[in-house]
Design goal:
Blueprint: E1 7-12, E2 20-25, H1 37-51, E3 59-60, E4 66-67, H2 77-89, H3 94-101, H4 106-113, H5 122-141
Antiparallel strand pairs: 1-2, 3-4
Helix pairs in contact: 3-4
């Protein structure tokens, strides 16, 4: 942050007439504008999925615009869920997670992510984490 100061950005929250909220944005485009989710999805996320052979290459529509074929399964919103699951596994509280995700009501966050709360499922998460780490280690040495 010392080398690249945040972009101060004030936007209406959730609705055109919503409460004005100001945040310091760390990620932005090279033209110093804030990153919009749709733009990031179309210019960065989906091309990366194509490169990884997760989705097919974009096709041109009738107006010669690139169109990717995706479902919710490959969507950018998945990153939010991944982030939330990592935070909960790391011990972040629902209240803090709600704040990080921009949820006004921690109860909503709890309803969405209760199944990821640390508890009886810790063993299952640890098992898959251990397997993925072992696979990554084997892949690096191969």
């Amino acid at each position: 942050m010392k080398a690249h100061s945040p972009l101060v950005c004030s936007l209406r929250w959730e609705k055109p007439n919503g409460k004005l909220r100001t945040h310091n944005l760390l990620f932005r485009w090279t033209d110093d504008k804030f990153v919009r989710a749709r733009g990031y999805s179309e210019l960065v996320w989906k091309p990366a999925l194509v490169s990884a052979n997760v989705i097919p290459a974009a096709e041109k529509d009738a107006r010669a615009r690139k169109r990717f074929t995706t479902s919710r399964r490959e969507g950018l919103h998945r990153l939010r869920h991944y982030y939330a699951s990592v935070m909960l596994a790391g011990g972040v509280s629902i209240k803090e997670l709600a704040e990080y995700l921009g949820h006004a009501d921690p109860g909503f966050t709890l309803r969405v992510y209760a199944h990821l709360m640390p508890g009886s499922h810790d063993c299952a998460r640890k098992a898959i984490d251990d397997r993925l780490k072992a696979h990554a280690t084997r892949t690096k040495t191969a």
